[in-house]
Amino acid sequence: MFYCASPPQWMWWFSLIALVPLFTRLFYLQSFREVFVLSLLFAFVLVFFCFHWVSQVAINFGGMPWIASKLVLCGFALFAEFQFVLLSLGLFWLYKKYKNIKILFVAPFIYVSLDFLYPKIFPNTIGFLLYPWNEFSQIAEFTGMYGLTFVILFINSLISWIFLNLRQSKKNFLQFAAVLFGTTVVLIFCHQWGKKRLEFLSNLEKSFTKNFKVSLIQGNIGDIDKLSALGGSTPAIDLALNTYKKMTLETIKRYSPDLVVWPETAYPLLYTHFQDEYANLSHAARDDWIKSLMEEIKTPLFFGGYFAIRHDLSHSHQDSSRPDGTRSRHYPSPRHRVDPSPRHRVDPSPKLQVGARHVPAPDVNNLAQKTSRSQDYNSIFLLVPPHELIGTYQKSILLAFGEYVPLGPFSGFVQDLIPAIASFGRGNGPTVMELKAKNIKISPQICYEGIYPEHSRQSVLLGADVLINITNDSWFGPTGEPWYHLVLTAFRSIELRRPLVRATNTGVSAIIGITGQVVQKTEIFSPAILEAELALASQPELWPQTFYLKHGEWFPKLCILLSLLFFTAIMFDCFYIKSAS
């Protein structure tokens, strides 16, 4: 049922009953072993169907055969949503102790606590399934998505409690009616409040006087071309650059935007802003191409590419003579894993080749101190006419098994086994870039950084007027993942009440208003140009200041506190009874 509730099916009401079969069956089992097997099977099936695109990325990105990709999916399904197993074991233990099915009503508190604490490769919570219920999902500006998760667990627990009570000989219909009435009143109140809130926000957005025209370029560069470009193939690189140049010139001529946005690594090379002659001589960078484009479009450009810090050691890079007598340095491709062997260690006073001179020295130094070797970064660059680099951002939240391997001494083995896995460095975290000509502050974020609420929250606290997320979901194929990713990111606009601009390589690119609703979007796997005019507050104090913006993830932390108090009371009760005996 969770699969039916998920995008793109979006029969979200199934999420309100999806846990009923599990909850009602638990109380008829005899042992913890049976509970473990049943709940693990439930979590496995949920992940196998709802996250089926994991096998697709194993094929497209990892180059695995079909059978191996399914084994990867099965392995992932065993642990990805293990909090359901822990919840089931906890409820069964409570039932064995108290023989009262009312313990179902502690399930929402326990689950939200576990869901918040449990580590996940793809951070998510089932509360996002209520996104299509636009009015009700507005409560996320208070509680975040975990408040919606709590509602789903509570309704599932309530239905399960009623069902189990109806099967008992003594039925308290007055109690049923009271609980149902109270729950219905709360849901109706939240729905009506959300409806009024949407009306208020729509009117507020219309009152904003600052306009910001953006053009999003969805180049639709396929997986094979993308991998070839990342590997240094000249035809593939030319295809990517020419595609984005053509589409950019088209929108400049037709729409005259204030900013053109390209997706993640749309520029599949290092960008050094002419600060690294070796990279340009070896064609690991084409800074002159970007300069020529900027002179032609005369418009600010926000694009994804690669940033590099090079420790200029004669023994760490090969030099070779060029036909013109100059020397060129062989650079690894941006996704190449640098061997951390002793020959790559840094001399006590190395000369740094930094991929952008505009970056404040402290930031560069911080990045340099994080690594004792040359390092590549998945990055964003912001250029303004005629050719001034006014901002860069290095991705700080990396995708496990895509941009690094979190297996310590075994990481090298896995990267040798799957060469497509990169070894990127981590950036310094959330920041803002300012377009001074428009007096607009931008929050840059790459790929699934957008589904980490705290990342966007910190950017807004720094003064961001608009969130710009660039990503590449092409590895997942024509599955539901691009829609998952879009919706999980869209919640940032509800929580923080800032517009969000999302540019992707193959879709779904979108414009999301401060209500969290998708205003414009593209189709997946088709080239597209998305043009939109955003209405922004002329002064920072005119933006809505949400409870979530001020206090962050207070709701799951409250659930953790209440759960700990509950279990502490139980432990004290057990100790007291044992002492009395």
Would you write up a description of this structure?
The protein is of the alpha/beta class and 581 residues long. The chain has helices at 2-5, 20-26, 32-50, 53-60, 66-79, 83-98, 107-117, 134-137, 140-143, 145-166, 173-207, 223-230, 234-255, 277-281, 287-297, 361-369, 411-417, 453-461, 481-496, 547-551, 554-580, and strands at 210-218, 259-261, 301-311, 319-321, 327-329, 352-354, 375-384, 388-394, 433-435, 440-446, 466-471, 500-504, 510-512, 518-521, 528-536. It is built from 21 helices and 15 strands. The radius of gyration is 26 Å and the shape is globular. The two termini are 47 Å apart. It has 2 domains: 2-205 and 555-580, no CATH class; 208-545, Carbon-nitrogen hydrolase (Nitrilase/N-carbamoyl-D-aminoacid amidohydrolase, 4-Layer Sandwich), CATH 3.60.110. Strand 7 and strand 8 (388-394) form a beta hairpin.
**Domains, number:** 2
Q: In CATH terms, what is the fold-level topology of the largest domain?
A: Nitrilase/N-carbamoyl-D-aminoacid amidohydrolase
Determine Rg (CA atoms, Å): 26 Å
How far is the N terminus from the C terminus? 47 Å
Number of strands: 15
CATH superfamily of the largest domain: Carbon-nitrogen hydrolase
Can you name the CATH architecture of the largest domain? Answer: 4-Layer Sandwich
The amount of beta strand, in percent, is 5-15%
Q: List segments where confidence is low: pLDDT < 50 over at least 5 consecutive residues.
A: 313-362
Largest sheet: 7 strands, mixed
Overall body shape: globular
| Structural category | alpha/beta
Helical percentage: 40-55%
- CATH class of the largest domain, anyone? Alpha Beta
Mean pLDDT: 86
